[in-house]
Design goal:
The protein is of the alpha+beta class. It is built from 16 helices and 12 strands. The strands form 4 sheets. A 5-stranded antiparallel sheet has the order 1-2-3-7-6, with helices on one face. The chain has a 3-stranded antiparallel sheet with strand order 8-10-11. The protein has a two-stranded antiparallel ribbon with strand order 4-5. It starts with 12 loop residues before the first helix and ends with a helix.
Length: 405
């Protein structure tokens, strides 16, 4: 049975802030303007700004999936996972996440910094706007979180307790179904235009592809390497330009759990693929397309560099430098495969991406076909590709097939 608690509205938010001592003084509720801006699939999000220019963001978990409605119940305790993820990242890369103010466990509300003046990265990518350096920041974000929450830097007893505390079965089940299972079978949540039927049928007939997707799903379910964001894509990154360059903040870690590190990296790169396919069918400027094409390697290189920087501080020196090389190779192969899985689900399954969905029909078909062919090759050939640097050539080849050039 779904828990009973007050569901906030823009009209009731000021009174809620007033009666919550932990939020006192952050904003002037007498002059507060409140908007509900949650455009995601799960939650309510309230952005609040007062006459002085001060702000706060409140996020409340509903007891069901917002995208679907009350017919899909879901634990509101996912907000606890989000607080855990923000807290862990805030301890090592505070400049890359919003400040966490308060977690209200009774009403399932998370209070955090309001990122006024920031834009969702996916929206900016859709417009063709580049943010140099963001890919590297995100690679560093993944590495810092991975190292700081893993056995590399946490005593084994404490690490195992952290893993137990971070169990997130309902949200993980969503990923297991929507990312690894439903795109490869007939499922009610799937939908796609008729022109993609031959592509989807070919995927489902590819036994090698299905075996690799199953292997990736098994690692997602069993490899508790480090605390992951769990849903790291261009819609969970905020960006802005400043006098010193582009900056980013990572939001929405409610799928946070202990899993394989390559999953977060793959999630990013799978979304880079959607942006890249959009850019090529819209014939965006060459320099913008080149920036997108280099993003995956930029993210991986920053991840690897940060892991190597932190490696001398590892707790157990029986994990040798040779072990690090083998581990990084495994993460790279995982990253390639997970990127493919995350990209395929955005074309076939539930919760698609505006990068592709908002294209005119002909361009939609071309971009979606490029994504499916590229992503499926990444999954099927992840071991032979071996490195993130090899992924770009697959995109180039599949784009040429589809566009005839």
């Amino acid at each position: 049975m779904a828990p009973k608690y007050e569901i906030l509205t823009p009209q009731t938010v000021p009174a809620y802030i007033d009666r919550t001592p932990q939020l006192a003084g952050i904003v002037d509720t007498a002059t507060l303007e409140v908007s509900e801006v949650g455009d995601g699939n799960l939650n309510l999000v309230f952005v609040c700004k007062d006459a002085n220019g001060d702000g706060i963001c409140l996020k409340q978990s509903l007891p069901y999936v917002r995208l679907v409605g009350e017919g899909w119940p879901l634990t509101p305790e996912r907000v606890f996972a989000e607080a855990r993820g923000l807290s862990a990242a805030g301890a090592v890369v505070p400049e890359l996440v919003p400040a966490l103010y308060y977690l209200d466990r009774e009403h399932y509300v998370l209070a955090m910094e309001y990122l006024m003046g920031w834009d969702m990265w996916r929206s900016q990518l859709n417009l063709g706007n580049a943010h140099p350096g963001v890919g590297a920041d995100l690679g560093r974000f993944v590495a810092a979180n991975a190292f700081s929450t893993s056995f590399f830097s946490v005593d084994q007893l404490e690490a195992k307790q952290l893993l137990a505390d971070a169990i997130n079965p309902e949200l993980c089940k969503i990923t297991e179904d929507l990312v690894f299972t439903e795109p490869y079978i007939e499922a009610d949540n799937n939908s796609y235009v008729d022109e993609l039927i031959p592509e989807v049928d070919a995927m489902r007939a590819d036994t090698r592809l299905l075996a690799e997707a199953g292997s990736l799903k098994y690692r997602f379910m069993t490899a508790g390497e480090a605390l992951l964001h769990g849903d790291l894509h261009s819609g969970s990154v905020m960006v802005k330009h400043t006098a010193t360059g582009a900056q980013c903040r990572v939001i929405d870690p409610e799928f946070c759990y202990y899993g394989p590190v390559g999953f977060d990296l793959g999630a990013l790169i799978g979304n880079y693929l959607a942006a890249q396919a959009r850019a090529i069918v819209l014939n965006r400027p060459a320099e913008y397309q080149q920036w997108l094409a280099e993003m995956a390697v930029e993210t991986w290189d920053a991840f690897e560099a940060e892991m190597r920087r932190l490696w001398p501080t590892r707790l157990d020196k029986t994990w040798t430098d040779g072990f690090l090389e083998e581990w990084l190779d495994q993460v790279a192969r995982d990253t390639i495969g997970y990127a493919g899985c995350k990209a395929n689900r955005r074309i076939i399954g539930l919760a698609k991406v505006t990068d592709i969905q908002e294209l005119p029909h002909d361009e939609h078909v071309k971009a979606a076909t490029i994504v499916l062919r590229t992503a499926s090759t990444w999954i099927r050939e992840r071991d032979s590709l071996g490195s993130v640097a090899a992924m770009g050539a697959v995109f180039d080849a599949k784009a040429a097939e589809v566009l005839g050039s």
